[in-house]
Amino acid sequence: MSTSSDFDAKKAEAFAGRMVSALNDAAFGLMVSIGHRTGLFDAIRDQPALTSQDIASRAGLDERYVREWLGAMATAGAVDVDPATTRFSLPAEHAAFLTRAAGVNNMAVFTQLVAMLGEVENDIVECFRKGGGVPYEKYPRFHCVMAEDQTVLSFLESHLLSLVPGLTSRLTKGIRVLDAGCGSGRVLNRLAELYPNGRFSGMDLSPEAVERARSEASRKGLRNVEFIVRDLSDFDQTAEPESFDFITTFDAIHDQARPLNVLQGIYRALRPDGVYLMQDVNGSSHVDKDIGHPLGTFLYTVSCMHCMTVSLAQGGDGLGAMWGEEKMREYLQRAGFRSIETHRLEHDIMNNWYVIRK
């Protein structure tokens, strides 16, 4: 302990409390992830108070593990416990953010990232020491977790398409659409389903993600959508000129190896009257302006341990998720775009939405 005369004991005590909270919250995140993956939250939703054995039986799980998990949930205040009977229940107010029935509000989905990032901690530590990055293949569940995120799908029809005046009319008539860095293709498949006259193309570096996208399209019987495994690092040279009316990227630019090349390729591929809709993290290029961001620590951590490092693993720019709106606009302008509109949705604290034209 410092003995300096300017040492603030109250400040030290407050930070010690912050660290205690951090340990509890980190553990809580891991256990919420387990509760989500095993279906425990769904098993006790809308149920009366149950014993650990009742809950284990409902979920088809081992009681001893369920009992210890319930201990973590009870001490965290996520579930209620009756001290007289040692029976547990999930308050409806908590179920609204922890169960699959909650849909887009199910925050348990994102706690899976905590465990996923922990799996590459040793690799990240080596990168701190030696530089370089951790490649996509080190994150076997990444696209699976991202496919559970319902945010874009939930607001696609009600909020996102309306950001571009006249877009739904053009989609109904039939236009050509590209989703660059499409991941598991859920948004593109939904668009292809809604607008059968259109032609839809998705491109992504991950064979695993593309296979998931193709499988979903096949299950839905969609014949107007295609998915291509493709590294977009040379898209500035290989994009088919003026071939798409509408291009989208959903949190996909900042972790590209060559983000400027991708943006230049999008500019090249976009028709003169076309529109580019870009989702990216709502942040600043100046860290001091991100202090107070409701998800600031989480986003910088995801950036350090995934977005930035997968780009660096390809010898890329390593912009990271928190590259910020200022740098994002700089890159768009360097790519040739001149009209950039920023939109924020009231229910989306994490992202900005940009309507971009040549």
Beta fraction: 5-15%
**How many separate domains make up the residues?**
2
How many runs of DSSP E, i.e. beta strands? 9
CATH architecture of the largest domain: 3-Layer(aba) Sandwich
| The CATH homologous superfamily of the largest domain | Vaccinia Virus protein VP39
SSE order:
HHHHEEHHHHHHEHEHEHEHEHHHEE
Task: Supply the helix-strand structural class.
Answer: alpha/beta
- Report the biggest beta sheet as strand number plus sense, adding barrel if it closes: 7 strands, mixed
Task: Report on the architecture of this protein.
- With 358 residues, this protein is of the alpha/beta class.
- The strands form two sheets. Strands 5-4-3-6-7-9-8 form a seven-stranded mixed beta sheet, with helices on both faces.
- The protein is globular, with a radius of gyration of 23 Å.
- β8 and β9 (351-357) form a beta hairpin.
- It has two domains: 9-100, Arc Repressor Mutant, subunit A; 119-357, Vaccinia Virus protein VP39 (Rossmann fold, 3-Layer(aba) Sandwich).
- Helix content is 50%, strand content 15%.
- It has 17 helices and nine strands.
